[in-house]
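Regression report. Comparing outputs from two consecutive submissions.

Submission 1:
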Amino acid sequence: MDPSACGGSIMLQEGEGPMARPEKVEEVAQLKARLDKSAAVILTDFRGLTVGEITVLRGRLRSVGAEYRVVKNRLLRIAADAAGIEGLEHQLEGPTAAAFASGDPVPVAKVIQEFSRQSRKLTIKGGILAGAVIDDARTRVLADLPSSKELLALVVGGIAAPLSGLAGVLSGLPRKLVRALDQIREQRAAA
């Protein structure tokens, strides 16, 4: 039977079998480009969500620098292979939507986890963090981390606390020296 009669297979190069449809090749190239430029990708099963709920989720993700879109598992698998990402196959079953995080992945994971808890329909499948595949449990751990801004504030606070203490000690030294010199002057004047 001719493979093209039943939908054919999607190939990135001509020599690998039936010719791929140009729109599928373009979509794979776009997915690969998104994978390459994303700090993280969080995969979800969106079964049961209404169009309105997906729109709300997209808006929340956009506000933290992520793009959320429904993807075809086969095309994402091909794009991941082309990007050198291995081990994603078991997460690509059933309907899949991906949140592509261009910046800090923690707020993106937090939004998805919060939305998943609220809707009870969205399921986190796992994802990709810095080119490595992570499972759903690690994605939830990522959501529980402080954001990079929060971590930076903690570091700055940790550095600033000793410095402000040192400034207090140093500003106290001249006052103590002045008092000590004043007491010595009073003792000499009395003698």
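Submission 2:
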Amino acid sequence: MPPPNKYSTYSNVPTAGSDPRQVEGWALTETALRMKASQREPIDSAALLQAVRLNWRLWTIFQTSMLSPETQVPDEIRSNILSLADFIDHHTAGIIADPKPEKLDVLIRINREIAGGLMTTPPATASAPAAPAPSSINRQA
């Protein structure tokens, strides 16, 4: 029998057909929660590294989708996400080389801020109906 998932209290996994922005926001929030949980005393280095690597994989997915020629994300947003992903790559490598709980704070803040933006519905303008924002992971073909 596999060990219980100590993060199961955080799991409110989006269902199939969910808004891609909501899914991305959930994934960023989930990894932020896991990183925050790994900072609790007593520090479990294995859990800390597991949470950081999960976050790194998520940002690698975002980075890969921004490099895809089929992405419909505007160039300015694409550039910003790629710059942020590059920062996360370097910062994460530093954490893996020297795992200290306080180093996760910046990654947690980034994830929470981006998730908050993704999970907020932009207000509709009076002149035109709100168009769905392009998702960084799920592109319309």
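Expected: both submissions complete independently.
Actual: both completed, but the second showed a warning that disappeared on reload.
Relevant detail on submission 2: The CA atoms of residues 8 and 119 lie 21 Å apart.
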